[in-house]
Amino acid sequence: MSSIKIYHFMPDKLNLYGDIGNIIALKQRAKWRNINVEVVDITETDDLSLDECDIFFIGGGSDREQSLATEQLKKIKTQLKNAIEDGMPTLTICGGYQFLGSEYVTPDGTRLEGLNILNIFTESKKERLIGDIVIESETFGQIVGFENHGGRTYHEYPTLGKVVDGYGNNDTDKREGIHYKNLLGTYLHGPILPKNHEITDYLLKQACIRKGIAFEPEKLDNTVEEAAKQAIIKRLLKAK
Ligand code: GLN
Question: What is the predicted ipTM?
Fold first, then answer.
C-alpha cells in the first residue's frame, strides 16, 4: 500500500476552531484511495529533518501560542523555506500563515519577528474580522470557511482567490490567503479542508506526484460534499 507522511506542527498549541479537522480530512480522502497516511506530531524541532515529510501542516493559534511556536519554527526556517521552494505541499492556517512573513505587529504596537520565509507583512488590530466567508478561486472553484482574526495580512503573491463575502487577508483588498508553489496559507478555519474537498485533493495530489504515487481524483463521489457546500453558500448569500 502506498504511504505518505504528514508533519503536523505543534498540534498541542495550534488548533484553533477545529483545525485538527484538516488532518482528519487528508487522512480520510487518502484512505478512500488506498493511500496510507502517517501523521507525525512535531512538538520540538531540534534535529528535525523534513526529508521524509510529504505534507507540512500548521494550524492557527492565539498571539501567545504563536510566539512560542515561532521559536520552534525558527530552528527549521532554512529547511522549511527550501522545502517550500522545492514544492512541498504545505497548509498553514491563520497564525500559521502569519508566521511565514517578516513580522506580526500586535494591536499594542509590539513587533514580533516572523520567519521571513516570504515577503508577507501582518499588523493586528483590536477590532477582529469574524464570520463566515465565501471565496471564488480560479484553481479550486468556490471555497467556504470561517474566519476570526485580528491580523491584517498584505502581500503581492498569488492568492487563494477573491472574497465574495467576508474579509480575507485584510479589510481592504478583498483577496484571501496565499498560493505560492504548493504552499497554501489562509485565514480559513472551520476547518477548511472538510468543507473544501478540492483543496484536500490538491494537497494529496501534489504529495503523490512528488513521491511517484498514482493519484486518481475522479475515484471519489463528491455529491455529499458539494451539496453541503452549496447549502452553506446559499444560506450565507441569502442572509445578506
Ligand atoms: N493571532 C492571530 C490573529 O488574531 C491568529 C489568530 C488565529 O490563528 N485565528 O490575527
Answer: 0.91
